[in-house]
Amino acid sequence: MSEHESQNPFDVFAELFPQVTDLNAPFWEGLAAGEVRLQQCQQCGVYQHPPESFCYGCGATSLAWSPVGAHGTVYSYIIVHQPYHPAFRPFIPYTVAIVQLDEGPRILGAMLGLETPIAIGDRVQPRIEAIDGERSMLLFEPENGR
Ligand SMILES: [Zn+2]
Fold first, then answer.
1. How many domains does the chain have?
2. How far, in Å, is the centroid of ligand 1 from the Cα of 4?
3. pLDDT for the residue 96
4. CA–centroid distance, residue 66 to ligand 1 (Å)
5. Is 12 inside a domain boundary?
6. Could you tell me the distance, in angstroms and rounded to a whole number, from the CA of residue 53 to the centre of ligand 1?
7. Residue 56: phi, psi to the nearest 5?
8. Does 42 map to a domain?
9. Could you read off the pLDDT of 73-102 as tens digits, one per residue?
10. What DSSP letter does each residue of 52-83 carry, written as one string?
């Protein structure tokens, strides 16, 4: 390892980090604090993602952020073999899954270093990795190390 290489393989994602807005900031702040937070409608109780200024279910504008377990099942996935950005090269092949969260919403997340391929319906859990001192990213991994 050269002196220019980082100890943290995830710091390369700093330049790819999404734009943080007033609407999505609580999601990213949650990850930085080590938890997955979802927007929840205060009218009908539905969780939703991505965040919006109104409830997808009932249209109410009273929304709050709550920490959730964010376990779920694989709804669909692809296995990526081509590095579409140099930052992804160390991780290929990697899986990108659409996870049906137990709380309701579907969310996209990468799954890295899988020893056996996942299948649709497999149980997964969140894996939060720090990018730097302020930001973290949401990945998924097989539930309970299975
Ligand atoms: Zn609602």
1. 1
2. 49
3. 95
4. 14
5. no
6. 11
7. -60, -30
8. yes
9. 999 999 999 988 888 888 999 999 999 999
10. -SS-TTT----EEEEEE---EEEEEEEEE-S-
